[in-house]
Every structure is written in structure tokens, then in C-alpha cells.
Amino acid sequence: MASELKIRVNEEMRAITSAPDTPLLYVLSDELQLHGPRFGCGLAQCGACSVLVNGVETRSCVIPVSSVVGKSVTTLEGLPAWYAQRKKLAHAPELHPVQEALIEEQALHCGYCFNGMIIKAAELLSKVAQPTEAQIRSAMNGHLCRCGSYPRVLSAIQRASRMMAGGAEKRTAEVAR
Amino acid sequence: MSKVNAAAQLPRRDFLKAGGALVVGFSLGDALAGQERSVVAARGSVAGPPDPKQIDTWLAVHADNTATVYIGYADFGQGASTALLQVAAEELDLDMSQVRSVGLDTNVTPNQGGTYSSASIHRGSPQIRMAAAEARLALLQLASKELDAPVERLVVSKGVVSVEGGAGKSVTYGALVGDKPFNVPFTGKAAVKDPSQYKVAGTNVPRKDIPAKASGTHTYLQHVRLPGMLHARVVRPRGQGAYGDGAKVLSLDENSIRDIPGARVVRRGDLVGVVAEREWDAVRAAQQLKVTWDAKPTLPGSDRLYEAMRAEKTNDKVLLERGDTAGAFNGAAHVASQTCLGPYQSHACFAPNAALADVKADSALIICSTQDCYTLRGTLARLLGLPAEKVRVQYYESSGTYGHSSHDDAAQAAALMSQLAGQPVRLQFMRWDEHGWDNYGPAHIGEARAAVDASGKIVAYQYEGWQHNWCAVETSVQLALGTPASLWRGSMAQQVSPLTCGGQYDIPNLRLVNHEISGLGYLKGAWLRSPLDLSFAFASEQAIDQLAYLAGMDSYEFRQRNITDARWRGVLDAAAQGAQWKPRRAASNLSAAKVVQGRGIGLGTHLASYGGAVAEIEVNKEAGQVAVKHLCGAIDAGFVVNPGNVENQISGQLVQTASRMLLEEVTFSATNVTSLDWRSYPILRFEQCPRITPVVVQRLDQKSTGAGEEVMAAAAAAIANAFFDATGVRMKQFPFTPARIRAALASA
């Protein structure tokens, strides 16, 4: 058994028993049982497994868990809190604006790619508050969607950008829960 | 408030005959002893399928005045579960917040058949609607006693029954039956609402599954874990060989994974896998295990595919013949012909398939993402040597499958590996397993020939198609048991389509010929979203388009002239209007510029419904690149339960069609498939995605048909016709790779 590693995930220190060369994804899904990052290709080609490492979108399927020691890993589960921290909000919202906007736009088909889509879009909006359509397409180009949800994802990112600028978008969809 | 429709009532005599157990079941528990075991009592604890002739199989009303609807169709992300709940809520006069569904489970949910051919709404909604109507009738009979008013005077809103004009006296569904069984037979006799009364069905209800998926709390199949399970991976050659040849192990060195503690080999015949407590150990062991395979060079190779298909002996069948086609061609003003080639394409599931299995000596639990739980249960039972009722299959959603990907193969492999390991296992295919061992959408050769008279009327049409059928044996079973490969017979979707091949038009002389080649010696085939239709339309609709060109007419107006069917005309007009089509003859704006634009129109469908599309594209003639700039697609699927969701389906179909026409092709050598990941099998990316205009043609007076794959053929044709408009050249093979585009332009 490998010696114990400690990594920071969603602002919590977690003791890890996996071997240090284990790809971060398997630690997050098997040991920490998180549902955000998920297996898609294991080759860093699709974006299903994306997390933020120190705020930078990273493919967790190809980096060893030991490489994030001393860094801060944020998964989909921790994204609202990460957003609140950056925006210096008193409380973390239930959802990141990108997540809210995706629900508003009813953008999902199967939704399996949306972990990566949300993580990448959150990263983009943290750097460029009001991206152009071309900037969004370029930033998102490494995230594949087999269902072809790109058009509504594009609209959702634009909507999230407006929401974050302060103009609280009127909720058009009555969200079924 | 919805008033009870007097016509919806069964005659009292019939009701007593049909539902005599109703009052007994509610008031006297002991009376149940003399009856068949209640569906409710059995739910989850005994093998299904539950009796479809009992209302309890379909619906349960809870004490909190909500209802659970038991749906036999899988939701793969197409949103059908929300739409089916809309149908149920509508008939029950419940709010959407008051209805929910449960996951498919052979111990719980009814057997409605497989979730394919866009069947959920087409075949599923009538059953759900009828069951809900019948439950409502039973509830009103109870309320009638409770409120001391005839059923005809009762009104329902959100599950609260009150007397019309009565002062405040009311009772909820929940209070009437709360969690107790109906014990009412499903007679199919209760009247359903007229669509003109609909308040929930036909509206854009948000999908129930989306909030959990967006927040990250949804449990996909890939998240499910079983206590005491091992992680499993299959070990196969990288990329399948010829169907029928299997993959023979020549030698296997178990010592090659000795340095990975806890990992071990499981093997039955040529089914080889590894299991380990830790997932990374299973992944490493599968890559590291030394296996020598007997790689037989029996495939034609993707470069020689179509020559090989042409050389095969074929099983020929004239599917449809009317008039005198040969004679009509002879007397025609213009004749157009198109021979077109369409490749093998992959489901390329975004999440590689997975399955969990806990196989014991006397029972088995299999958790997977099959399209058909009950059929798979039978297959697994035979495979494991267990009676079907001892096998329980549960469905969890994976990524969209878009047809028969390797989900059943994964389930069967997991079952066999659990049996071998003597422990529960979680099998996860790797990307190369998924891409390399998929059941691909078969390649196709289409010869379309069509003729027009001097007045612009189509007078003759002929389509001949060559392809092989679908595989009937999954890989894991073939490897483990040596089961000989065999092929499906009889499905309409694996032969030339009378709808997409000329069926859109009024053609007096028409002949459709199917040339079935043997699937042995080729790749494993199966249904891939809109099976073969993209290939059919690529050939057929280019021939039709060419007739318009030869007749000197605008492509849209030419089609209008040759269609009398109101529904084909409807989608044609809707697509043209959605794209703001301006009439002019195709290829009338040719330019010598490096980058040129074109627009095209097309019609087609799958087994039902109607699809029309317009494409606007840009061709870079030097680079040999096509950019699809805009796609407008219209579907007429009869009465559409959730138009917003169907718009999303149309959007997805259009994007996927652009992907399949421009990029997607399974490549293979003489020994194996070589397109094994997203680099060697690219799909459309964000930057390549066109602007999309989806149009739903709502038909309140028509029964609902599928909307998950019915505009892809039209869109494929529209893209091809747009290429002609831009360049004056017709493409004869897709995907439109730079090499093919440059070659086509050079040979013109």
C-alpha cells in the first residue's frame, strides 16, 4: 500500500490511500466518490474528467494524484463555493451561474459532457467576463459533445456572462425539481 | 380546472364488471387474499414483467398526493421520460411537480419493448395515456362516494377532486388511495382527453433530469458501485477484426502482470479480462497483460471496402415496384443518376460503456445501460445458465448511445466476468474498446436514378442499395463461448427505405431494389441513429436535386411541384421558410473565388415522421474544407408532447449530421479497426458547429411518432446539395474529407 498522500479538494484536505501514480480521476471518483469528474477517454481528448487545479482547467484522467499535492483541486461539486470565493460573496450560491444558465437554456441532452463544459466555461468567465462568441467557441473547442449540444451551451455561456455582470436574467423556464 | 367528460365514463355495468375489485381492494385488506398477488406488494421483490393488464403496473398514487409512473422506456438523455410524465400528468390532472418516474428495472417497470426506433413517445405514450386515464376514472369513482356526487359533476385540479359549483367540499387523490394498490384491471376502455383540452401535454415543460445533471448530483451508470466489487477491464486486440472471425488467443502470459498486486486474469475461451480491487490496477493490468492474438487479415480494409462490397454475392429483393420504370426512363426529358458511398460510422459513445454484475450460483443482478432490459435479461439468463426470473436487470443512464452501441456487450462481459471472479464486478470499457469494438452503422453503396418530364414532373425513379445486416451475437459471448456469428433478419431499418428513397414525391414509376451482402467478413453492424438514412438521402436527394437543376428550376420549387402529401409539403415549407429560402436555380452563382458559398435543401426521415432541412455552407476549394454555417431542420412528428425538447432533439440531430457528413469514418486495415479514439475518429467540435434553426411542425390531430432521428437524412442531403450549389460539383462519397473534396473539384 502506498504511503498516504494529502490533497486539497474543494477546500478540504483529504487523505488518499491510492498509489501516487494513480490518475487523479480515479482518486476523485473511486476514493472520494465525487460525481462531477467522470471517465470519458483516459487520453485527455474529450474533457469529461475536467477539474480546476489552482483555477486552471485540467484533465484529471492523465495527471497523477501526486502532482496536485500542495495545489487546490476544484470539482463540479465545489464550483459554486469557488465562484463565491473569487467574487467575494458572503455565501456560496446553490449553483454557479453557468449551471443556472444551462438549466435555463435546457441545454443538456445526456449531460455526460457537462462536467467539463461547466468547468471550462467557469474558467473562461473567470478570466474573460464578457467573451465574444469566437472566444467562447475557441475556449470550449477541446470539450466534445456527442449529442451536439454546442448551440445551447453557447447561449448558456452568454447568458451566464450577463448574469455575472449583475443583470439578473429573468428565469424563463419553470424549473422542475 | 378540468371538467369530467361525460363521454369518458364507462357504463356503470361495465365498470363493475371491470373494476369490481376496486372497492374491495381499498377497504378490506383481507379481501386481497382471494386475488392475484397485487403488483404493488410484488414491486421490486419478484421478477417482472408486472402484469400490463393491471393499472398498478403503470401507476401508483401516494398519500402526499403525488404519483409515480412506471415507464418501460429508457431515457438516454433524449428527454422522453419527462414527455411521458407530461402525458400521464395531463390525463390525471396533476401538476408536473406531482409526478415522477423510476429507473427501469425488470423487477419493477413494465415491459414496453426496447427503446429504439424513436419508440418512447410513438409507441409508449398511448399506453401511458390510457393507463393514466383509467386510473383517473377509478379515482373519480372513489371520489364520487366520498363527496356524495355523481362522477359527471366532479372536477379535478392538481389531484384535488371537488364538486362542480359545490362549496369547498373536496378530496385529494392521495387521501383516496394513498400508497394502496388500485387493484383495477387495465381495460383500455377509459376515454382519453381530446388534445384541444391539453394544458400540460404539448407545452415546453422543463426536463426533470436536467437540474441534477447540471449540478453534478445525477448518478450515471459510471458512478454506480456495488459492495465488495472488483474493477474489471476486458483485454482484446486493439480494434476488432472481421465479424465471424472472433479473436483467438494464441498465448497469454499471466506473469506479465505479476508486479501489480491484487490484479488477476479472468478468462473463458477467448474472453480475457482482468479484475482488481483498485481501478487503476485493473487499467494498468489490462494494458500490461501479454496476450498474443491470432490476427487474421480477412477484412477488405477501409480503402478497398466498396470494391469488396461490389464483388460480393448478394441476396437481391425488389422491395417496391410500381408502373413501368424502364419505359418511363426511356421517354423522359432529363435523367439524373448518382452512385454514392457512405462509410461505417461509430456510435462513438461519449462515455465508454460500462456494466456492473453480481452473479451468484442461483441469481444475478446486472446493472447496465441497455436499450431493452427484458430482452437482455433473457440473453443473460441463457448465458449464465439461470432461469430468467432469477436474473434482475437494472438500467442506469450512461451517455447518449444513439443506437445499439456496445451496451449489451458490456453487460454480457460483466456477467461472465463476475461469474468467473466469484465476486461482483464493475466493468468499464476503455476508449479503444468502445471505438474499436462498437457495432457500427453499416457502410452503404447507393445508386439513385431519377427522371423528369418536360413540365418538371418526376416520372421515373429507381434506387438500388448494397449493405449488410446487423450482427446478432455480441462480442463477449462470441469470445467466451465460441458462438458462431449470425446476422439479424427482417428489420425494415437495415434495407432500402421506401420513405427516404423517393417516398417523399409523387412518382408514378418507381422501383426499389435491396442488395443484401453477407455481414461475415466485414465489421460488426447495428443500428446507428437514423440507420442508413444519411446514405440513402445522400444518393437519392442529390439525384432529385440534379433533376431540378436539369429542368432549370429552383430546388425548393421543384420539390413543391412534385409533392402532394400535406405532411411532406409541411416540413419542406417549414425548412425553407426557417432558412428564408430565396428561389434560384442551384449552382447559378458559381464563382472563381477560393472560398465559395452554397445552400441546399433535402427531405427524408427514418421509419415514421417527416424531416426537411436546409443547409448553408462555405467551401474552401484550395484547402478542400467545408464549413457548415447554418442548418435549419423541420420535423413533423404528429402531436408533439414537448416542443421545446423536440427542438433540442432537432438541434442535436443537425449537429450530429454535420459531424457525420464532414468527419466521421471508421477506418480499418486487413486485420483490425484503426480508428480507436477521438483523434483517429474525430467528431464535430465547438468551433465547427453551425448556427441551428430547429422547427417543430405541430400536428394536434395526428398521433405522435418519433422525433429523435427523423431530420438527419434531410440534413445530410441538404449539405450535399449545398456543396453542389457552391461548386457545381456533386460529392459521391462522405465524409467530405479534404482529399475527397479536392479530388472531386479537380475531376470536374
Structure description:
The complex is a heterodimer of chains A (177) and B (748). By secondary structure, chain A is an alpha+beta fold. Chain A has helices at residues 24-31, 79-87, 97-104, 114-127, 133-140, 150-164; strands at residues 5-9, 12-16, 50-53, 56-59, 72-74. In chain A, helix 3 (97-104) crosses helix 6. Chain B is of the alpha+beta class. Chain B has three domains: 2-212, Aldehyde oxidase/xanthine dehydrogenase, molybdopterin binding domain (Aldehyde Oxidoreductase, domain 4, 2-Layer Sandwich); 222-296 and 349-436, 2-Layer Sandwich (Aldehyde Oxidoreductase, domain 4); 302-345 and 440-747, Aldehyde Oxidoreductase, domain 4 (2-Layer Sandwich). In chain B, a hairpin with a 5-residue loop joins strand 2 (59-61) and strand 3. In chain B, helix 5 packs parallel to helix 7, helix 14 runs parallel beside helix 16 and helix 17 (533-550) packs across helix 21 (712-727). Chain B starts with a strand and ends with a helix. The model of chain B is unreliable at 1-37 (pLDDT under 50). At the A-B interface, helix 1, helix 3, helix 4, helix 5 and helix 6 of A face helix 9, helix 10 and helix 20 of B.
Detail the topology: elements first, then pairings:
The complex is a heterodimer of chains A (177) and B (748).
Chain A: E1 5-9, E2 12-16, H1 24-31, E3 50-53, E4 56-59, E5 72-74, H2 79-87, H3 97-104, H4 114-127, H5 133-140, H6 150-164
Parallel strand pairs in A: 1-5
Antiparallel strand pairs in A: 1-2, 3-4, 3-5
Chain B: E1 2-3, H1 12-19, H2 21-27, H3 39-42, H4 55-58, E2 59-61, E3 67-69, H5 80-92, E4 99-101, H6 119-122, H7 124-147, E5 154-157, E6 160-163, E7 170-172, H8 173-177, H9 210-215, E8 230-235, E9 248-253, E10 264-268, E11 271-276, H10 279-288, E12 290-294, H11 305-311, E13 314-322, H12 325-330, E14 334-342, E15 354-359, E16 364-368, H13 373-384, E17 391-395, H14 407-421, E18 425-428, H15 431-436, E19 444-452, E20 458-468, H16 475-481, E21 509-517, H17 533-550, H18 555-561, H19 566-578, E22 595-604, E23 610-620, E24 625-636, H20 643-662, E25 691-696, H21 712-727, H22 738-747
Parallel strand pairs in B: 3-4, 8-18, 16-17, 20-21, 24-25
Antiparallel strand pairs in B: 1-5, 2-3, 5-6, 6-7, 8-11, 9-12, 10-11, 13-21, 14-19, 15-16, 15-18, 19-20, 22-23, 23-24
Helix pairs in contact in B: 5-7, 13-14, 14-16, 17-21, 20-21
